[in-house]
Amino acid sequence: MARFTATWTVFLLMAVLGSAAAQDLDRAALQASIESGESLSGAQRKALFRARSHRQEGRLAEALGVLGEPLEGPGAPLLQFERAQVLADLGDTAGAQAALQAACAAEPSFARAWLRLGEIAYGSQKYRVAGEAFERGWELSPDRRPELLYYSGVSWLAADLTTEAYRPLTILLSSATDAPLDWYRAWIAAAVEVEEPDVRIVEQLCSTHAADPAAWRLGGRYAAGRTDYESAATYLTVASYLGTFDSEDWRRLGDLYAVIEVPVQAARCYEAAAVGESTPHLRDRERLAGAWVAAHRPEEARAALLAALDQTESRRLWILLADLEYQEENWEAALAAYDKATTIDPAWGRGWLLAGFCARESGHAEEAREYLLRAATFPRQASAARSLLEEMR
Q1: Distance (Å, whole) CA 356 – CA 375
Q2: Which of 72, 109, 166, 360 has the most CB atoms around it within 10 Å of its CB?
Q3: What is the DSSP letter of 180?
Q4: Residue 205 and residue 224: Cα distance in Å, rounded?
Q5: 3-class SS at 330?
Q6: What are phi and psi of 386, to 5 degrees?
Q7: Is 276 helix (H, G, I), strand (E, B) or coil?
Q8: H helices of 295-348, where?
Q9: Distance between CA atoms of 236 and 204, rounded to whole angstroms?
Q10: How many CB atoms are located within 10 Å of the residue 191 CB?
């Protein structure tokens, strides 16, 4: 029974391979028939021969003149193709594209015309035309070179047509297990926009290029583009184990951990981002402090905030420090920080109110009244300020 099953499997495999080979032969025969010139009339055959001779010898104007008339009839697509080649040599890309489109319209199975149209259209930034032409040329070509699908996908992407780009790129990567990273990069650019992308391609990417941190970064980009921030953080964390991370990489990973509410990891990433810079950016200092606050690690948060305030005066940093000290019920320290913040921004009503509260808790009644009277001039804080003043009386 086992022998019968194995034999039957081999038979099926041979049948599939035989069918594919037969299709290749059919496509090859079709293209040979189109390009053989067998459908050309005598006048057309003569014109084609003379045009090719002139072109080979560099006499492009004469070649174009020969092809100016006999472009009607069954052999017209081949003549239009030759005309396009001459026009391209002359630098007339618009004319070459028009001739190739005429050839493809007259003979929709003309693979080489489609591929040349793709090249000409891409070079002249007609990306929609190029995307369709490369894909159609791949379908008709006997050898079906995989890079043609890549060119098609990239052309569709350049035309901002991600759904159209996703189709050829998915076909490409579904059968190319040793594909370069650029192919995956193009697929990801398309896949983040489609409704239900084939996630197996991302798994294939990280399996095939498991030792390359760039592959894991691409996986992170895909996951982040799909708003799957937890997976994005996982991909980038693996990338951090495999290769050198710069400050921007650590910052991006920290932001992901912050979004998925893992503040300790976010803080560690922000610390790593600061290591590679002689003077850490203020925004990084704020992110680091905010992460430690979210992690309920007041000592680390306080140290980060004070280090940042040594670097520059910042309303936001003073507010973070004030709120931290307030939560810890360090009333004197909170009062000093709120006072600094309101000095920088006198229009911050909440700061005057909280400064008054902290002054009251610290036993500084007169200062508390001054802060609260100022807070009472702000509509949103007026009621709470008056209530505190009434309590103090």
Answers
A1: 8
A2: 166
A3: -
A4: 16
A5: coil
A6: -65, -35
A7: coil
A8: 298-311, 315-327, 331-344
A9: 17
A10: 24
What are φ and ψ of residue 198, in 5° steps? -85, 100
Tell me what pLDDT residue 338 has.
94
Give the pair of three-digit tokens for residue 239.
Answer: 């990338």
Task: Extract the tokens encoding 196.
Answer: 């239900």
Cβ–Cβ < 8 Å for 111, 85: no
Q: Is 373 exposed, middle or buried (0-12, 13-18, 19+ CB in 10 A)?
A: middle
Structure tokens at 228: 């799957």
List the structure tokens of 215: 């592959």
Blockwise average pLDDT, block size 10, the chain, 393 residues:
43 44 76 82 84 89 79 77 92 94 93 96 96 96 93 96 95 88 96 91 93 94 94 95 89 94 92 75 80 88 87 85 91 94 93 94 92 94 92 83
pTM: 0.74
Q: What residue has token string 């140290």?
A: 303
DSSP reduced 3-state for 223: helix
Q: What is the pLDDT of residue 29?
A: 87
Q: Which two tokens stand for residue 184?
A: 């995956």
How many other C-beta atoms can be found within 10 angstroms of the C-beta atom of residue 304? 29
Q: What is the CATH T-level fold of the domain 324-393, as seen in this structure?
A: 1.25.40
> 389 vs 276, 334, 374, 380, CA distance in Å?
50, 19, 11, 16
Closest to 118 in 3D by CA, of 106, 105, 102, 135: 135
Q: How many residues are given for the chain?
A: 393
Structure-token pair, residue 249: 């990489």
Q: At what angle do helices 111-123 and 76-89 cross, to 10 degrees?
A: 30
**pLDDT for res 87:** 93
- Rounded CA-CA distance 72/77 in Å is 9
H-run or E-run covering 196: none
Query: H-helix or E-strand containing 278?
Result: none
